[in-house]
Design brief:
This protein is α+β, with helices and mostly antiparallel strands. Helices cover 16% and strands 47% of the residues. The protein starts with a helix and ends with a strand.
């Protein structure tokens, strides 16, 4: 009897753990603010966010599809002020950044500008995803 209860508990635990992907658990409270496919060169891209997305306290980047070097992230808020974050990090496919804490309380973001270059180690273009946390 005890063996069958242990077995049932193990099976239930395995089932529950496998029903969630890592991305679902990780991004459970993170909202996608935008995604862009990047070019094979030194470039910058602007992600337009706006008031309709709400106010955020934290940001995070995630890279899929290829590899890039991110140099800097600049955030322009709805009130016209700006913050620059020197990221200076190389991202491989599937890698994410550290969490960027926004100064102050929740802030309404107008635009996020990302400066980057590609490693050009593969023929696939990377896609950058930006997530915000309220």
């Amino acid at each position: 009897m005890k063996t069958s209860i242990k077995f049932l508990a193990i099976v239930c635990t395995f089932f529950l753990a496998s029903s969630f992907t890592v991305q679902e658990v990780y991004h459970g409270h993170w909202e996608r603010l935008g995604s862009k496919k990047v070019d094979f060169r030194l470039d910058k891209d602007v992600f337009h966010v706006g008031m309709h997305e709400g106010a955020f306290r934290k940001l995070k980047l995630e890279v899929t599809g290829g590899s890039i070097n991110v140099h800097q992230v600049m955030i322009e808020y709805a009130n016209g002020t700006r913050d620059k974050f020197p990221v200076k990090q190389s991202f491989n496919k599937g890698q994410g950044s550290r969490v960027l804490d926004l100064p102050g309380n929740k802030r309404i973001i107008k635009d996020i500008t990302l400066w980057y270059d590609t490693k050009n180690r593969s023929r696939k273009k990377a896609t950058v995803h930006i997530f915000g946390k309220h």
